[in-house]
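Ticket #4471: structure output looks truncated?

Reporter: J.K.
Steps to reproduce: submitted the chain below (89 residues) through the standard prediction queue, then opened the result file.
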Amino acid sequence: MQVITVESTALATVGYDEARERLQVEFGGRAIYHYFGVPAAVYQGLLTALSKGSYFNQAIRGRFPFGLISELHADGWDAQCRSGAADRR
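Returned output as attached by the reporter:
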């Protein structure tokens, strides 16, 4: 999976695995999530959106199963894998 930095106040990086339809999103707060079953067209829409945060909220959040992969704590990275509803905040 190639991960790229994006111009966004909400998102830091995104990556996509087309074979697995898996989207990786790193948020500005440094938490990294994987979203499953995401079509390539949705990923392309995210890349071309003027507001990536708005597009994420409208087209991805709450629409696909997800898992928390890792998050940055004061003492460093904490690798985890959690799953739940995409609207969890």
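Triage note (M.O.): checked the attachment and the full token line is present. Confidence is low (pLDDT under 50) at residues 79-89.
Status: closed, working as intended.
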